[in-house]
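User: Hey, quick favor. My workstation is busy. Could you predict this chain's structure for me?
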Amino acid sequence: MNINFEQVHNYYERIVFEEVARQVTEYPDYSADMLADVACVALNRLPARYVRHDVDMMFYLTENERHVIEESVREAMGFSFAFVGERMAKRARAT
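Assistant: No problem, here it is.
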């Protein structure tokens, strides 16, 4: 039997990557590495929700569940940009 797992992914990955790309203009001093760190920190603050197709998950969510997801992502993004920025500022002061 040939099993294909290529479609399986964390539902939050696309949302977080798109949100980092959307907010990048608000953080012009962040390097590509820092933005990747922001995405990692945000994803680590969100629950893992593995799906094969994003549309399948969205179909089964209630309006309240969608709102909770949006709020969770917003909170994780705010924390992550601040966290990475603070770490980079500490490194800059230490050198």
